[in-house]
């Protein structure tokens, strides 16, 4: 559990819990929402749009060497 | 000196939790292959340890399993680049597939996570492509035409003269209030709260999407989409109840 609030990548709410992917938090509500949303749901397009950040995170990351 | 895998992974998870507890998202440094900086894959031992912890519902475990398999998403997404869908969207869709995979993975079944996740990622992309080829020639009434300075979307349905409360009035015409409340019981707490505030279902004045968004600390565009989805779900519930 996070003590400090983070902004959810999907709903933009300030949350204390969630998974963190490449430095971006996805709250538990949105994670569950994503799992149960069908591809033809309009909400799905919204998730796709919001998750684009991950791709930019992957491509914009500076070359910094091995972990 | 070889540090046992359990100790190594416990240390990593511990550091991850500490970073989260002080409000700092972990800034990972990854080996760069080509133009993308992808998190390195987990070793067999690391994955085994994390999978043994997966049923506990630990978010740090789930996040690490998802993040370290992102290269699988990129690898599979690249195979669909000639479909006309942008790579960033394919990666988004694949990531949803990967999140589904990690959430539904059964550690009891003798199958590798990578095998299961690959199937989920590919299925997710294929389902999207199938759906996309069907609706390419259609235009949705909910197609955003423009966005104003406050982030409010002007939808095609707005221009066509649909009044803002048509959906609610339609629902009211079709079913009585008791059915509505029974159906509301099937929603999650957040969904129910949104509907109650938006349509004044608890006797309070109905609120705009922006008001609800501000109150819940969620973006207005997300409320807009959630609302449509909830109404769709409510309709399904009505059909079951009637």
What's the arrangement of secondary structure elements?
The complex is a heterodimer of chains A (67) and B (242).
Chain A: E1 6-7, E2 14-15, E3 19-21, E4 24-26, H1 28-35, H2 42-60
Antiparallel strand pairs in A: 1-2, 3-4
Chain B: H1 5-21, E1 32-33, E2 36-37, H2 44-53, H3 59-67, H4 70-79, H5 87-104, H6 113-135, E3 144-147, E4 153-155, H7 156-159, H8 166-174, H9 177-184, H10 189-199, H11 209-216, H12 220-241
Antiparallel strand pairs in B: 1-2, 3-4
Helix pairs in contact in B: 2-3, 4-5, 4-6, 5-6, 9-12, 11-12
Pfam families (chain A): Gin (PF10764)
Protein name (chain A): Inhibitor of sigma-G Gin
Averaging pLDDT over every residue of chain B, what do you get?
A: 80
Characterize the main sheet of chain A.
Answer: 2 strands, antiparallel
Could you tell me the radius of gyration of chain B in angstroms? 23 Å
Low-confidence stretches of chain B: 27-35
Task: Jot down its keywords.
heterodimer; A: 67 residues; alpha+beta; two-stranded antiparallel sheet; two-stranded antiparallel ribbon; globular; B: 242 residues; mainly alpha; 5% strand; Sigma-G_inhibitor_Gin (chain A); Inhibitor of sigma-G Gin (chain A)
Characterize the structure shown.
The complex is a heterodimer of chains A (67) and B (242). By secondary structure, chain A is of the alpha+beta class. Chain A has one domain. Chain A is 40% helix and 15% strand. The two termini of chain A are 25 Å apart. In chain B, helix 4 (70-79) packs across helix 5 and helix 4 crosses helix 6 (113-135). Chain B has helices at residues 5-21, 44-53, 59-67, 70-79, 87-104, 113-135, 156-159, 166-174, 177-184, 189-199, 209-216, 220-241; strands spanning 32-33, 36-37, 144-147, 153-155. In chain B, a hairpin with a 5-residue loop joins strand 3 and strand 4 (153-155). Chain B has a two-stranded antiparallel sheet with strand order 1-2. In chain B, strands 3-4 form a two-stranded antiparallel sheet. The longest helix of chain B has 23 residues, at 113-135. At the A-B interface, strand 3, helix 1 and helix 2 of A face helix 1, strand 2, helix 3, helix 5 and helix 6 of B.
């Amino acid at each position: 559990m996070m003590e400090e609030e983070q902004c959810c990548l999907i709903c933009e709410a300030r949350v204390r819990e969630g998974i963190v992917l490449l430095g971006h938090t996805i709250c538990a509500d949105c994670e569950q929402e994503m799992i149960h949303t069908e591809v033809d749901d309009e909400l799905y397009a919204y998730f796709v749009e919001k998750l684009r950040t991950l791709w930019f995170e992957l491509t914009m990351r500076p070359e910094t060497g091995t972990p | 000196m070889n540090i046992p895998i359990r100790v190594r992974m416990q240390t990593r998870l511990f550091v991850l939790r500490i970073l989260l507890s002080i409000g700092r998202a972990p800034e990972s440094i990854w080996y760069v292959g080509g133009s993308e900086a992808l998190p390195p894959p987990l070793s067999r031992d690391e994955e085994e340890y994390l999978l043994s912890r997966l049923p506990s519902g630990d978010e740090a475990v789930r996040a690490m399993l998802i993040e370290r398999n992102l290269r699988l998403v990129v690898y599979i997404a690249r195979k669909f680049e000639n479909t006309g869908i942008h790579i960033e969207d394919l990666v988004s869709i694949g990531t949803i597939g990967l999140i589904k995979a990690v959430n539904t993975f059964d550690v009891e079944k003798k199958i590798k996570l990578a095998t299961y996740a690959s199937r989920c990622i590919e299925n997710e992309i294929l389902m999207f492509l199938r759906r996309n080829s069907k609706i390419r020639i259609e235009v949705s009434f909910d197609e955003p035409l423009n966005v104003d300075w406050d982030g409010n979307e002007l939808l095609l349905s707005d221009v066509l003269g649909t009044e803002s409360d048509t959906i609610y009035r339609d629902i009211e015409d079709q079913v009585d209030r008791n059915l509505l409340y029974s159906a509301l019981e099937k929603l999650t707490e957040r969904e129910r709260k949104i509907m109650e505030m938006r349509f004044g279902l608890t006797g309070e004045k109905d609120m705009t999407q922006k008001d609800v968004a501000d109150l819940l600390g969620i973006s207005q565009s997300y409320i807009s989409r959630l609302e449509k989805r909830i109404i769709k779900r409510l309709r399904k519930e009505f059909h079951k109840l009637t």
